[in-house]
Q: What sequence folds into this?
């Protein structure tokens, strides 16, 4: 029955993908192009068809259609993406891109880096989707522009600004495991000031013992127009989360609790003229974490960690007839005060330059390099060269070669020694060299992309037991990651689209030829998305096979239906794990059984 459901679902979607001749149209009936504008590939606006790397976009309409409660839910069905997922509303969810670990993937919100300096990761279950305008996913190394942490890719989350008409909206949701979700949003514009403010509250009893969640979130964003060419942006994000930490089913921690408090401040000055763009930004990140497990052997109190980061960032873009020149730099200070890691701080500085050169009408070349200087690890140069050749108006070929690197985290360096683990203060940064080539086809009702990629990582930081049985990180490993991505989107009618993507991934330790943990051979995603005047929704299926850790394959289907009851009143029903499969993404952490969420939304 399990295989039957998968085969039937696959045949329906694939039949829709290859059939039909409808065109995608907007509300006025004008034919739309699937060639979108992206900013992540080069730090300035360019057409998707002219990007020298693989970039994919989730826009506001897709976000509304998907059965998603957080950023992790939005991204999990994309090509080249898989997650570390500890299950349930409270379980941490961190991303991998093309086999790159979460600390090798840079997460940005409105340009602000969010990765923790303590462990390099970002819990994407913390971020509500209500304030997101679009997400751009850059697959592949981007250290030539973004520096450390961009070894495997970049996730750029772009939030909504104020609306021209003042509007207040409220959403109330209730679902399985006594999950309650409340959101209040107010946005508008007053003279030269745009504003967007939201307050959110989420509670859940969880699907396991000691997996409850109690979370509050505040988001505020203000845009002020200084003059015709320049504006100021200020945003604040605050999250306070208290949750149970149940541990793996083989060794549960029924009394462990974790509290996280995050505050992120983003201040930007932006200027756009006919021939140049400028940006100066100041970012502040503060994260406090308390983990308390009174049942731990040798318990001597909770673990407390406080990390801070202050970043000054500058970017300048010059537009010429055949060239687009961009350059800039940043200064970053990190601090940690931890009962486990101790007190440390470090300063890093960077400069970068990139030139996009249109050699002929159909050929564009991109050359870029960045130099990072870290006071603990010295200097590192990361370069990238890419090219895009337009074969015809619908088809183009992109090729790129790029270097990347990642510095060790505070956990890697300073985790205290005990009978089981210890850090390694002598670690060196990871470095990588990656190659990618792909074909991208963009038509009025069809989008297709196929990518081949390979990445060699040197001085890979790997936690493993030594001869004494103690787990510690070292640079002894090198790894090779190779794969293929196939991405298809077909508009069947004005309102209905079908999606298909498949990723093959082979990630190995070059020394032992052993596969790297949690890098699946096969990931396949299928989807149907409908968007009408009064009804919208989605049906998405995911197959994961060829797994490590002796974990079985799984196929999971999620569904969502939105119904506009009145002009300002909407009802939505989401059902996850429609066929009630029992599976684990991370070994020892069972995922949710079939579950639902019913939400009522009202605008004023």
A:
């Amino acid at each position: 029955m399990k295989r039957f459901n998968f085969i039937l679902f696959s045949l329906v979607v694939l039949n829709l993908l290859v059939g039909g001749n409808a065109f995608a149209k907007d509300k006025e009936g004008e034919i739309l192009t699937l060639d979108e504008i992206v900013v992540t590939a080069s730090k300035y606006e360019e057409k998707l068809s002219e990007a020298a790397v693989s970039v994919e976009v989730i826009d506001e309409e897709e976000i509304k259609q998907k059965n998603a409660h957080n950023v992790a839910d939005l991204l999990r069905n994309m090509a080249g993406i898989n997650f570390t997922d500890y299950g349930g509303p409270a379980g941490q969810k961190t991303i991998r891109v093309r086999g790159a670990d979460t600390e090798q993937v840079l997460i940005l919100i409105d340009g602000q880096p969010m990765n923790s300096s303590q462990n390099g990761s970002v819990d994407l279950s913390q971020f509500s989707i209500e304030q997101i305008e679009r997400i751009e996913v850059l697959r592949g190394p981007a250290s030539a522009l973004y520096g450390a942490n961009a070894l495997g890719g970049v996730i750029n989350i772009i939030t909504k600004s104020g609306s021209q008409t003042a509007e207040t909206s409220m959403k109330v949701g209730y679902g399985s495991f006594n999950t309650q979700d409340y959101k209040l949003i107010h946005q508008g514009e007053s003279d030269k000031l745009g504003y967007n403010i939201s307050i959110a509250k989420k509670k859940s009893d969880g699907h396991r013992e000691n997996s409850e969640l109690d979370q509050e979130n505040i988001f505020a964003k203000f845009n002020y127009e200084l003059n015709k060419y320049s504006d100021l942006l200020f945003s604040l994000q605050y999250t306070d989360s208290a949750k149970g930490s149940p541990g793996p089913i083989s060794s549960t921690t029924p009394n462990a609790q974790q509290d996280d408090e995050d505050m992120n401040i983003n201040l930007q000055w932006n200027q756009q003229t006919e021939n140049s763009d400028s940006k100066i930004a100041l970012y502040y990140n503060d994260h406090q974490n308390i983990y308390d497990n009174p049942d731990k052997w040798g318990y001597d109190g909770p673990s407390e960690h406080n990390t801070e980061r202050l970043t000054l960032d500058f970017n300048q873009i010059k537009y010429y007839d055949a060239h687009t020149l961009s350059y800039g730099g940043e200064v970053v200070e990190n601090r940690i005060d931890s009962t486990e890691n101790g007190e440390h701080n470090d300063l890093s500085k960077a400069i970068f330059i990139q030139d996009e050169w249109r050699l002929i009408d159909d050929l564009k070349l991109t050359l870029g390099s960045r130099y990072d200087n870290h006071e603990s690890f010295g200097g590192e140069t990361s370069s990238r060269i890419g090219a895009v050749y337009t074969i015809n108006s619908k088809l183009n070929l992109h090729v790129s070669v790029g270097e990347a690197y990642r510095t060790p985290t505070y956990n890697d360096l300073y985790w205290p020694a005990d009978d089981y683990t210890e850090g390694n203060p002598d670690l060196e940064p990871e470095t990588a060299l990656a190659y990618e080539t792909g074909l991208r086809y963009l038509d009025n009702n069809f989008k297709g992309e196929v990518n081949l990629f390979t990445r060699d990582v040197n001085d890979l930081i790997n936690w493993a037991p030594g001869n004494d049985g103690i787990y510690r990180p070292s640079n002894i490993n090198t790894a090779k990651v190779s794969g293929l991505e196939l991405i298809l989107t077909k508009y069947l009618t004005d309102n209905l689209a079908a999606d298909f993507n498949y990723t093959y991934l082979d990630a190995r330790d070059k020394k032992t030829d052993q596969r790297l943990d949690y890098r699946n051979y096969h990931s396949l995603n299928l989807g149907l998305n409908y968007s009408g005047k009064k009804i919208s929704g989605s049906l998405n299926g995911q197959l994961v096979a060829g797994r490590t850790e002796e974990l079985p394959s799984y196929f999971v289907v999620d569904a969502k239906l939105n119904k506009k009851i009145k002009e300002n009143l909407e009802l939505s029903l989401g059902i996850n794990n429609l066929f009630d499969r029992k599976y684990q993404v991370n070994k020892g952490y069972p995922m949710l059984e079939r579950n639902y969420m019913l939400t009522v939304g009202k605008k004023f």
Summary: Residues 18-33 have pLDDT under 50 and may be disordered. The two ends are 47 Å apart (CA to CA). The CA atoms of residues 543 and 555 lie 4 Å apart. The chain has five helices and 33 strands.
